[in-house]
Specification:
It is built from 2 helices and no strands. It is mainly α. α1 runs antiparallel to α2. The radius of gyration is 13 Å and the shape is elongated.
Length: 54
């Protein structure tokens, strides 16, 4: 079985970005739950894409 490498800095950056966005959205109700899920998925995909291009 192949080991999965994880970039801890990228994970922490992503977690921080998601938590800030969630807190802001809870205050403003700017995005629906589905929109937030889509935004989070997009952020994860972008981070994974950047990591795979290195």
């Amino acid at each position: 079985m192949e080991a999965i490498n994880v970039n801890e800095k990228a994970v922490e950056r992503l977690k921080r970005k998601i938590i800030i966005a969630e807190n802001q959205n809870l205050k403003t109700r700017d995005k629906s739950d589905q929109q937030m899920v889509a935004w989070i998925k997009k952020q994860i995909e972008e981070e994974a894409q950047c990591y795979s291009n290195q």
